[in-house]
Amino acid sequence: MSDLLRAPAEIKYAEELDWLESVDDGPKPFSWRLSPKMVRLFILGSERADGLDREISQKWYGDRSFVERSIVTLASDRGLLLIGDPGTGKSWLAELLSAAISRNSTLVVQGTAGTTEDHIKYSWNVSMVISKGQSRESMIPSPIMTAMETGAVGRFEELTRSTSDVQDALISILSEKYISVPEMDSDNIVFAKPGFSVIATANSRDRGVNDLSSALKRRFNFVRIPVVTNKKSEAEIVRFRTEELLKRHRIELDVPPTLLDVLLQSFADLRASAAAAGSDDEKLESALSSAEQIGVLEDAILHSNFFGERALTARTLASSLVGSLARREPEDLAILNKYLHGVVEPRSKEEGGSWPEFLEGGRDAIATLS
Amino acid sequence: MSALDEGTPFEALRGQLQAAATQFADGPDALEGILLGIVDDVDRAVREPLEIFPVCHHSPASAVAMARRLREKQPKVVYLELCEDMAPLLPELRNCRLPVAVQAFASEVKGFPEAWAPLSVVAPITEASAEYQAIAYALDTPGVELVLVDRSSDHVFQWQAGGEEPAGPDDPPVEEEAALHGDAVGVEIGDLRPRFAELEEHLLHHGRVRHWSEWWHQYVELPLGDSDHDTYRQVMLLIGSLFRRLAPGDTDRVRVDEDRERYMWTRMREHLAATGTDPEDCLYVCGAFHASSRVEEFGVHGTETFEITPPGESTWQHGLIPSSHAAIEAQFGLAAGSVSIAATQWAKNLRRTRVQPFRLEGQAGARKAAKPRKASGPPAPVAPEAPADKLSGFLQSPPALDRLDEAELLGWSVEIVRSARRNGYLASTADAIAVFETSILLAGMRDRARPTPYDFQDAAVTCIEKETVPGRRDVRRLVEILMGGDRVGQVGYDALPPLARDVHDRLAPLNLKLQQRGVQRALLDMTSQPELRRCSDVLWMLRHLMPHGAARPIMGERELGKQSVQESWDLALGTHQRALIELGYEGVSIEQVLEQRLRRVAYAPNATTAQVLGAVEDAVLHLRSGRLADELGTHALEVLATERSVDGAPEVLRRVRRLLAYYRISRPVLPAWIESFAKTGYAHYCTLLPTAFTDEDATVRQVAAMLGFLFSMESLALSLGCDRTQLDLAFAQSHPREPSRVALLWASQVHLGQLSRAELRERCDGLLADPLVVPAYPRYLSGFLHALEPVPQLADFVVEAVSNAFARLPDPVLLPWLPKLITTLRSEGAELAPLLIREAGRVFPGRLAALDAWVPPWQAAPAATAAPEAGGGARRAVLLVAHPETCDSVAELLGCEGTWEAEAPEPSGAVLVGRHPETAAAVELLLTGG
Predict the structure, then answer these.
(1) I need a labelling partner for B793 at 20 to 30 A (CA). Which of A273, B266, B269, B773 fits?
(2) Do the chains contact at B462 and A223, CB–CB below 8 Å?
(3) How many structural domains comprise chain A?
(4) In this complex, which of B445, B466, B467 lies closest to A37 when CB atoms are compared?
(5) Which residues contact A58 (CB under 8 A, 6 or more apart)?
(6) pLDDT value of residue B181
């Protein structure tokens, strides 16, 4: 167990990556540490038919073709833009890809309203500039510039949150593959090494806030990651992430499969009702993604571990669900209330199981909140 | 299991597989059984004297192999796995543009549950299919016979009948998927797909492909594209046998499959025996799945134990309907675009292998005339060779990797970018380069040198698709179109059923190409071209019979007694060709079909009087058939007599009024049925009236409609011998309690003269004055509003009542009622509102200034009513004095004698002059010129 709260993928899976590198005999583009097929194997996990000596666990759940298209894009001349609803695993996929390809997933620029061009290119260490003048030593390279210099994959999270002029700084980086530093007289161009590429993520809910310019759009290949609606793979994801979480917190708590079913079913119901809703007021503000589910479960687990009886109950799950999803005071609560009365109540009468307790917990939580 | 002679060509392969089975499964067990069984199946089929040709649907490889084999072997008889009752239609294929589907259709079912009707079976035929090759060869080669040997369409359903699942359109049978093609059950030659879901999943997963179609294309279609006949045949047999053996034991499905095999072999043996054909001269074309059959009846020397049951009594109609690649894909669960890709592959295979395909002479829609068949003329048939083991070689050779066809991929890349640009994408040459590069990289990741169309599709989506789709089509769809697109077939004029041909003939004066797909605008000016009136008749009937959109009037209407002089129509008969063809199964002319449909509607067990009257109206309107209208009208009478509710009363009233008005102006005498209808209706509604007034289920509107019927038909009914007493009795028995009905009753009583307006007014005032009843006043009003339907002359009173409500109702009653009044008036009183508004316009002052001095007429009523009385008397007297002749002659007739008494002459005009001398003085002044 590492002493990091959350180790990046290349540290967490260092041993797997080392092993894969040692057995990889496929052609590797540029300075990639693994061949494209091995990258895919690392992300999607191995099967018996792959004929490997050891098992590689699956780390990202979703359509195989998304991963293949992403890898291929990185091997080509263009940047990769992962676009999708919040919580669909875009950043996680980006992290895994950069970990597998360049063994460094930490070259990240976080896009915010306050991101400036300096964050993408370089800035100066003012005191060094005063003492030594503008030179390579007094320059502070951005993560993207570092990626260029080392031929690694740079990441740009939430690209569409940063303003358009800042986004456009990427255009020359993606096409010319160099950054010029006009402040210096000599050695004033930083060229990208082979292997450099950019993975950006964008939230499809932010569309229209800072739309990408057409020039930037055509330098990116878009891979849209949909919300997982397949119950089986969703269960896999939730289980996988929860286990990770329990391990991280060193919690020994059992998640009963029936409760997992209750959670998945309730999200499926809420998604169906959101799809049928006519206006924004009739649906929850939350995107109801897998990440939200994991959040609900995490909340319930932590709560039962520290404040409860060290066992996860349907009541706790319900109150976590209500607590996490009720964001707008009258609207969201009304929807959840309607859901409890209209769907959960009949079901708890029909099916029994954990549902009656879930219903009760949900009602209590709503009563407390409203 | 293996009962084989020594010296079989597959001995070596058998040994290898046995060894493999032993190695993998640690000894003889199921695996060995399966592996060796497969070899047995192949061996058995290969050695069958009647050559079996296994095919797979929509497989260009099958089609090429078929064309090649037919040229080599030149069989005299071709047996084809296709429903035997479809045979007469096949020659018509040459009049059609493929793909089309052969359809068997039964609208009246016998021996099956009613819910299954109509039964429909379709067998789509595309050009890139082995069956089309066989059909074209057999039909265009003299001396060759084509025999369809599969069970008839009726058997398709018969054999389902035993199963648990009904074969309704929404609940497709197990082995054939029903979908498009108009809810038909699809039959297809050579349905070849693993029935074992896990096997398919496994194959897809390890083939790194997404759909079954893609797997087939990659692992069977391409390697077999160039193979020789024996290899092709053995590999197909192997696949058929593999899927057959690795199938879950679904007994129903297996039973149907085996019965079909027994059926086919029995039919073939019958044919061989009847014609004395040598089995060596025959070719049996069937799905690979059926080629490796293990039934006893298999083979020329199989047992004769299967008894073919006669088809059921349902009447089957046959025809060709247009089909499309998309429809085939949807119906048979293929990946979108796969049939189009197969068509492209077929064209490519032909170019590469230089095989000359067969094509029906005069095939419509052919790009260019096929090489004359004679050119392919009989090179001597190749002597049959002893079967050799081609399987071992095929199985042992590494997968034949297709070389990268750079030119083709470049072409695709450039083309997709162009097409994306046309569809609003910001795509450029840089994208073409990226698509090209990405396709190769993707194919590499998926272990193939040459990108498949599916890889290319992924690459194009990756590089061109951004966050929004600018136009109607996304990149995925554009690639599908690029790969051949959806091709929609068309049934040629000559292959159409008589009804459809008749429709086209009758619409010929429009000078439109109605066979073509798409919407066409027809303009009919009947004044300058009276002959177009007949086209218009046809169009109105089509509008009634065909799905929405096939014939849509833009301008012009047809109602009873009305006919437009100009009409314009949007016609899409080409697009709805299937619907037109299916109409053809119901009759030989649209009039006949319409008549049948109207009858069906009218005689349906749950038909209401209103529906029957609707059918009568349609019969008059479209068929101008007095006979049918009279018949249906008489039936309406019967239906009315059995009706116990008044639900349909408003509709009945509306329709009867319309029909009555029409008959009155168009015929010298009313038809007998409508007279009886008025009589029966009068008596019927009189009987139902007392109950309707108290029945809570009947709405006020329905009761009002009943009253409307009674009052408006009264004169007619009474003239035909009805008794007014019926109505009086009915009213005497009616004691409604609910306010709106009470109001309705009062209004009716006013109409009947049982209640005067003054009394009615008094009652309403009483209601308004009584604080206990006031809250119910709006409901009384609602009754009065509905009363406008039967008693329209009460309009002024209703205006008065509403005005009183506004004036006198307390706010807590008035305000909540107002919105309701408006919504009710809008939803239910659309026809009555104009009447009310006109009346209100008459009563209320027109200008605002006049309002202050205005006194409502009802408040000034007593004076107003008194005056006419006096005036009336005076007028009478004046008239009598002026014209005494009438009175004299009447008196004379009656034998009365008397003399006229001179009445003191009343000052008439003089009175006015006396009162207002100013006018006279002014006139005098004018005349005298002063």
Answers:
(1) B773
(2) yes
(3) 2
(4) B445
(5) A43, A44, A45, A236, A240
(6) 61
- Return the residue of B nearest to A65 by Cα: B458
Question: What is the number of CB-based contacts under 8 A between chain A and chain B?
Answer: 59
The residue of B214, B417, B441 whose CB has the most chain A CBs within 10 angstroms, and thus the best one to mutate to test that interface, is: B441
Which domain range does residue B28 map to?
10-47
In this predicted structure, what is the pLDDT of residue B245?
A: 81
Return the pLDDT at B173. Answer: 34
Kindly report the nearest CA distance between residue B430 and chain A, in angstroms.
Answer: 9
Residue B215, domain member (yes or no): yes
What pLDDT sits at residue B763? 87
- Judge: A218–B446 Cβ closer than 8 Å, yes or no: no
Is residue B239 within 8 Å of B76, Cβ to Cβ? no
Q: Which of A69, A203, A211 is the best substitution to test chain B (most B C-beta atoms within 10 A)?
A: A69
Give, in order, the Cα–Cα distances in Å from B199 to each of A231, A325, B195. Answer: 22, 42, 8
Specify whether A85 is located in the same domain as A187. yes
As a three-state string, the secondary structure of B658-703 is HHHHHHHHHCCCCCHHHHHHHHHHHHHHHHHHHHHHHCCCCCHHHH
* Inter-chain residue contact B465 with A222, CB threshold 8 Å: yes
Selecting from A36, A76, A217 the residue whose C-beta is nearest the C-beta of B434 gives: A76
* pLDDT tens-digit readout, A62-104: 888 899 999 999 998 899 999 988 888 899 999 999 999 999 9
> Does A71 share its domain with A204?
yes
In this predicted structure, what is the pLDDT of residue B387?
A: 65
The residue with greater pLDDT, A339 or A309, is A339
Residue with tokens 């009873």: B560
pLDDT at B404: 64
Classify residue B252: in a domain, yes or no.
yes
Q: Which sign, positive or negative, has the C-alpha torsion B647, B651, B656, B657?
A: positive
Closest residue in chain B to residue A220, using alpha carbons only: B463
Residues of chain A contacting B431 with CB distance shorter than 8 Å: 218
Mutate to test the interface with A, among B431, B433, B462 (most CBs of A within 10 A): B462
Same domain as B431, residue B461? yes
Tokens representing B691? 């109950």
The 10s digit of each residue's pLDDT in B914-924 is 778 888 888 88
